[in-house]
Amino acid sequence: MRTLAVVLVAFSLFGCEREARHLNQPAPPAPSQFVSQVPLQPGPTFVSDKTEGPFDDNAFGTSQGETLYNQMNCVGCHAHGGGSMGPALMDDQWIYGSQPDQIFASIAEGRANGMPSWKYRLTNEQIWQLVAYVRSLSGLTPKGSRPSRSDQMMVKTPPSQTPNAKPKRSGPPGGPGDD
Amino acid sequence: MTRPPTDRTLPADVTISEDDIARDARALGVVWSEPPGFWGWLTTVDHKKLGKRLIVTSFLMFLAGGIEAALMRAQLSRPENSLIGPDRYNQLFTTHGTTMMFLFAVPVMTAMGLYFVPLMVGARTLAFPRLNAFGYWNYVVGVVFLYVSLFVNMGPDTGWFAYVPLSGPQYSPGHRVDVWAQVVTFTEISALAGAVNVIVTAFKMRAPGMTVNRIPIFVWSQIVVAFMIVFAMPAVATASTLMLATDRAVTMHWFNPAEGGDALLWQHIFWFFGHPEVYIIFLPAMGMITPIIETFCRRKVFGYTPIVMANITTAFFAFGLWVHHMFATPIPELGQSLFTAASILIAIPTGIQIFCWLATMWMSRPQLTVPILFVLGFLFTFVNGGITGVMLASVAFDKQAHDTFFVVAHLHYVLLGGGVMPLFGAIYFWFPKMTGRLLGETLGKWHFWLFTIGVNVTFFPMHILGLEGMPRRMYTYLEPTGWGPLNLVASIGAATIAVSVLLFLINVIATMRRAPNAGPNPWKSSGLEWSVASPPPSYDFLYAPVVESRHPLWDTTIDLPVLTGFRTDRREVLVTTTFSAEPDSRHEHPTPSIWPFYLALCMGVVFIGSIFSPWFVLGGLGLSIIGLAGWGWSGTKPTHHERVATPVAVPERA
Amino acid sequence: MHSVLDPASPQARAVAHLWWWFFGVGAAVWLAVMATMLLSLRGRRAVRGADDLMQPAPGVEARVERLVKGATFVTVLILLGFLTYDFSVGRILAQQPTNPLTIQLIGHQWWWEAQYEDQDLTKRIVTANEMHVPVGQPVRFILTSRDVIHSFWVPNLTGKRDLIPGYQSTIWFQADTAGTYRGQCAEFCGLQHAKMALTIIAQPKAQYQLWFAAAVSSQTEPTDSTLLYGERIFMTTGCSVCHAISGTEARATVGPNLTHFKSRTMIAAGTLPNTRENVARWVLNPQVIKPGTQMPPSPLNTAQLSALLTYLETLK
Lengths: 179, 654, 316
Hints:
The complex is a heterotrimer.
Chain A: H1 2-14, H2 59-71, H3 75-78, H4 100-109, H5 124-137
Chain B: H1 18-31, H2 37-43, H3 47-76, H4 86-121, H5 129-151, H6 176-204, H7 217-250, H8 263-297, H9 304-318, H10 333-345, H11 347-362, H12 370-392, H13 395-401, H14 405-435, H15 441-467, H16 484-513, E1 544-545, H17 552-555, E2 562-563, E3 572-576, E4 583-588, H18 595-612, H19 614-633, E5 642-643
Antiparallel strand pairs in B: 1-2, 3-4, 4-5
Helix pairs in contact in B: 3-4, 3-5, 3-16, 4-5, 4-6, 4-7, 4-8, 5-6, 5-18, 6-7, 6-18, 7-8, 7-9, 8-9, 8-11, 8-14, 9-11, 12-14, 12-15, 14-15, 15-16, 18-19
Chain C: H1 10-40, E1 46-48, E2 54-56, H2 60-94, E3 101-108, E4 111-116, E5 126-128, E6 130-134, E7 138-145, E8 150-154, E9 158-163, E10 169-174, E11 179-184, E12 197-203, H3 205-216, H4 225-236, H5 239-242, E13 266-267, E14 272-273, H6 276-284, H7 286-289, H8 302-312
C-alpha cells in the first residue's frame, strides 16, 4: 500500500510533458544569439547547441503550431510541407539549419527571397510553437508529440507517421559547422 | 412452517443423515477450494470472491468519481472561482463521467448479478468461471490505466461521450483521448464476459423445477440486461476502439468531413450504445427492489408477469431512443419525432413496475428497515427524474434544455434515485448474506436520510439553473449571470452526499470488525440464496435444491427438497434444460487458473500498446496465443459430461 | 434574465407554455405517487398469516388490480396527451419563415463569426459575438463551424441548434420584444467553452436601420496624431495579423472582425463589458482572462497601449 502511494506521488510529480497544456505561462525566451538583421539580408548562420525546442515534446504546443501554420498562411509558400515558392519543410535539406534556435531565427528575422520577418507580428511563444510544428514535419521531434491527421483533406502523411529523422546541421558550404 | 398441501412423488421417508451431510460438506469444501495465499487470490474462479471483489472495486470507483464531483462542485460554488483551471476541470468532469458510467455503475450491477444469480437459481457457480475472472482482470486493467493516466496529466478531457471533432486528432493532441478509448475497450470486454456468463447460467444451470415462470425477478432483470449488454456494448467498442482510435493513430477518416467522413456518425453510434447503457444501469436496480419489497412487506409481489414483461419491453424500447440525445443536431424533424414517441412511451413499462410495487406495499404493512427506506427514497427521487425525462423527450422543450444543467439534474435524479438508491438498499439487504454480518440500522438510517436529502438539495436547484440558461461542462461562470446562489446550494448538497457516503463506509468497516451475527436467513426472505449459510460456502449449495414455486423458502417445508448423487471428488455442476429446468447433464467445472489473469494482461499490452505503436499489438497478440493455449488445455475435458439417468428425487411438475 | 421562462419570441413562448403544462401535470403525477406511497405505509389492508406472511383482506386484491390497470390506462392517456401537444408545438416551430433576415453564423474556438447576408455586396456586414436584429421580422441563422461542434443558444429567443463542421443547419426566430439577450455556446468545445457567450440585441425597426447604416460603413484613416499612432500600433505589432478593420489595410479573418468594435457592449465573446480598462486587460494578456484562447499577449508599453485603446475607441 505504501509503495503504491510512493509510486503515485512520484508519477504525479514527474508528470507527463507531452500531455501538458501550458496555459497562461510566461513564454520561453528567444534564443540568446538572436541577430537582428537588415531587411532582405540573411545574417550569418550561427551554430547552436540546443537540440530541443521548448515545445518539441509537447503535443499541445506542436498542435498550436500547426494551427498557426495554417492561420498565418505559411501554406501559401511552403504548402503543407512540400514547398512551392518557398522551400520544402518536410525534407532534410535546411538552408539555414534545422536546430530549434536556427528555425526560430528564420521565422523571426525573415530570410532572403521572400520569407517575411515575424518578430513583431507573433509572440515568442507562438514562434516556438511554429518551430515545433516545422520540425515535426520532417520527423525531428519525439514521435509521441507530433500531430496526427488534421480535419482537412489529406495531402501528406501526418507528422505522427513520418519516420524519425537524424538532425542535420547544414548551412551554405564553407560556413561554420561544415566539417 | 406448515407443510403445504401438494401431491408429490417424493418418497416421504427419504432424508439425508447428518453424517452424510458433514462428509459431503467436507469433501466439497476441499474440491471447491483454491490454493492458499497470493497465488490463490490471483487464480480464483469462485464467483463469490470475484463478485465481492468487483463490488468493492466498483465502490472504490464510486468514491473516486465522488471526489471528482466534489472538486467540481467546489469550483462551481462561486462565480469566477479560481480553484481549478479549465484544463484540469475538463479532465475532472470527463473522468467523473467515465468513472461513474463505465467503471462504477455497469460493473457494480454486473457484480451483483455475478454474485447472486447462481445463488438465486440454485447453481453451484457460474457457467464460465474463468471467463468471469478474465472479465474482472480486464476491468482492473482499465481502472489502473485511467487513473494512472489522470495522475500523469494524460487524463481524457473531452467528456465521457468524447464528441468528434473535438476528440479527433486535430483538436485533441496527445494521447488523452486514446486513454479514454481504451478504457472503454476494457470495460466492454469485462461487461460482455459478465453478460455471457449471466445468460448461460440463468438459462442452463437453474435448479430443477425452476421453470421460466419461477425465475426470480432479480434474475430476470439480470438476464434482460445481459442481452442488452451483448447488443449495445459492441457499438461503443466499434466507435471508440475501432473508429476513433484508428482516426487518431493511423489516419482513418471516419469522422473527417473533408475526406467523406461525418461528425454526426460518432454521435449515432455512441448513443446507440449510450441510451441502452443507462437502462443497463437502471434495470438491475429495479430487479433488486422486488425482493426487498417482498421481504419487508411479507408478501409476494403483485404482478410477477407484468413486471417481467415490463423489464423485457423496456429493454427493447431502450434501443429505439438514442436520437433524443441529438435533438439539437440537423436531423430531420420527422425522424426526431419518432424518437420523441419512443422516449415518452418507455415510461409506460417503468410505470407499470412502480404501480405493481405500490400495490404490493398497499396490500401489506411495510417494515421500515433501511432497505425499504432506500426503496422509498428511490420512489421519491426516481419518479421525479422519470418525469423530467418525459419532458426532455419533447423535441421542442429539449431544444431549450439540452446540454444545460436541467439535463444534469435529470440524469442524476434517475441514476442516483433509480440506480444508486436501490443499490444501497440491496447492499444493506444482502450484506448479511455476503459477509455473515448485519449492517448497523442506526447508521444506515442516517446514511439514508443524509443521502436522500443531499441528492435532492444538490440536484433540484440544477433544474432551475438549466432553465435560467446555464449550459453544462463549464469550468466557471460569470457573476452577472446570477447563477451563483443556486450553485452554492448545490455544492452544499454535494457535501451532504459526501458525509452520507462516509457514514456508509464507517458502517461497513465497523460491521466487518464485529463477529458474524447473521444466520442463513435473517430477514426470513424467500429466495434460494437464503437457504445457504452466510456467507455461502465455496460450493454454494451442498445439493441441488428442487424448486416448486416462485418463492421456494416460503412455499415449501422446512426440509427443502434436493437432488443428491453428485460427485464430491471433482467440481461438478448440474446442467438443466432451458425452459422447464429438468435435470439434463452433469458437467465438470474448471479449477483455479492463472490464464484469465495472464490473458487480461495480454489484452492490456495489446490495447494500451496500440496507442503507442502497432508492434505492441502484434506482440500482445502473440503473447495472448500462449494464454489461449493454456486456457484451452487446462480445464475440463468434454468426455466428462454425464447425462443424468435417474435422478434421486424430482418433484412433480406444478 | 436569460431564462427559458422569460420568452421574447413566439417560438420561445410556445416552449415556455409547453414547459408549464408539463410541469403542472408532472408535479401532480409525482404528488399522486408520493401520496400513494405514504398511504401504503399505514397498511391496514392486510392480515398477517402463517409464518408472518401477509394475506390481503378479501376483495382487496381484485380492487387493487383494477386500480393498477386504471393507473396504467391513465398514464397512457397522459403520455399520449403530452405527445400530441408536443407534436403540435413542433409543427409551429418547424414552419419556415417568410422574408427573413439571414445571418451566417460560423463557430470558432471560442467566438462567433456573424455575416449578414444581402444581395447587395456592399451591405454585407461581418461582425463577431454581438448581433443586432430587428423586432418583428423573422431572423434566420445558417449555422456551421470552422473547427469543432458548438451550439447556438439564446434562451429568451429560441431553442438551440448545433454548429457542426461539414453541416449547415438552420434555426430561426422572431423577436417580438426589444431588448438585449444573452446566449451561450451549449456544446462542449474545449478549454474556453465556458466563456463563449453571444449577445443578440433586438431593436425596433427604426433603430435597427440606424445601426445597420453605421455597420455597413467602413472606417476612415484617422487624422489626429494620437489616433494615427494608435492605428500604426494596430497595424504593425501583430493585431492586424489576425483582426480586420474594414476601410484599413487590416484584412485578416483569423480572429473577430473589429470594424465597429466600440459599438459592442461586451468583449471576448461576452466575457467582459466593453470598457477601456477591460480592453486594456484583455489586450495585454488574454490568457489571464481566457486561458487557452488563441489570442496571445501583447508586448506593449503604457504609451503604446494607451494610444491603441484610444484608437479602438473611435471604431464605432
